[in-house]
Amino acid sequence: xxxxxxxxxxxxxxxxxxxxxxxxxxxxxxxxxxxxxxxxxxxxxxxxxxxxxxxxxxxxxxxxxxxxxxxxxxxxxxxxxxxxxxxxxxxxxxxxxxxxxxxxxxxxxxxxxxxxxxxxxxxxxxxxxxxxxxxxxxxxxxxxxxxxxxxxxxxxxxxxxxxxxxxxxxxxxxxxxxxxxxxxxxxxxxxxxxxxxxxxxxxxxxxxxxxxxxxxxxxxxxxxxxxxxxxxxxxxxxxxxxxxxxxxxxxxxxxxxxxxxxxxxxxxxxxxxxxxxxxxxxxxxxxxxxxxxxxxxxxx
Amino acid sequence: xxxxxxxxxxxxxxxxxxxxxxxxxxxxxxxxxxxxxxxxxxxxxxxxxxxxxxxxxxxxxxxxxxxxxxxxxxxxxxxxxxxxxxxxxxxxxxxxxxxxxxxxxxxxxxxxxxxxxxxxxxxxxxxxxxxxxxxxxxxx
Lengths: 300, 140
Description:
heterodimer; A: alpha/beta; Pyruvate Kinase, Chain: A, domain 1; five-stranded mixed beta sheet; 6 strands; 14% strand; B: alpha+beta; ATP Synthase, domain 1
């Protein structure tokens, strides 16, 4: 059994770990809220963009399917954008992403894959397994991601797709469903499915705009095709921006939970140690008392 | 009333402007677009420039960095990456951007740099100049 002094120092160190994890939990809570707010703030923009894309797509009709971004790429490789975190201590956040990656790879055997990676954890995971990382997106750091950074990534993916090396581009990110539910998933990015774009508006928004007849009397400046071709890249940007914000929100939600668990576990451990310590102290006192009593008895 | 017009400027970070106005003038990709109440539905591409509007009889301006505009249900939605009120514009930063862009342009031309880089520098220069022009509206 540990000595009293050892116990005391262990209680102290568990206590300071608890303070640290508590602080980290609070930081994660604030950041979680901040990213959640940003995700909410970005929604009107994405909705307007995809609304316009949908309205123009329904005007263009079958023409949409002929555009390069809507057709399967000429190459045979697949490009994956993997979104992970820069730092650890966030529970199973990253390993869940890797699990989904491995499953996806198993389901698509024999398909040559290139990866673009967000987050140091993802980079480490792949390079440690001797896999190639085509591009590691580090600038700016994930945490300071803004729309412009997301737009740059979207542009890079689009250019890669148009280079003819790939047949498709997919994004693996963590969808944020609620504070306790975040699910990593693989979503197709390019080519864009014409049907999805054309139907998107009916789900997303006001029936007035996508209703019959609405498309006929809209002035277009310049023409529908040109507008559409300018809008689509913006639409892709919003999708990447969204994926990044959702992943970041999930990361902090996950980190908050794991730090809370760590804090609680430290508390339990501290209590258990304190109990042992007190019992031990009591024992010592009793022993000393017995000695004193024994001593005075002998003197009598 | 002859109908009113709601002007909303939507960026990825926030809704930069949401107010009832009497008239809007936008930097369309193919020239200025004037929008009054009861305007027909429209979708238009925008250029980098100044968006001017009249509210309560007073003219004011806002910087927009391109994007799109949609008129629907007597609401003008300006969907752009950056929409800034004159007071929000950082003059130092705009001047710095202007200086950098000019530098890159003179360098790029001298050594016949990538055409793409020159285009990018030109775009940056236009953004900086427009921001500075929007800034002048603050005093009005």
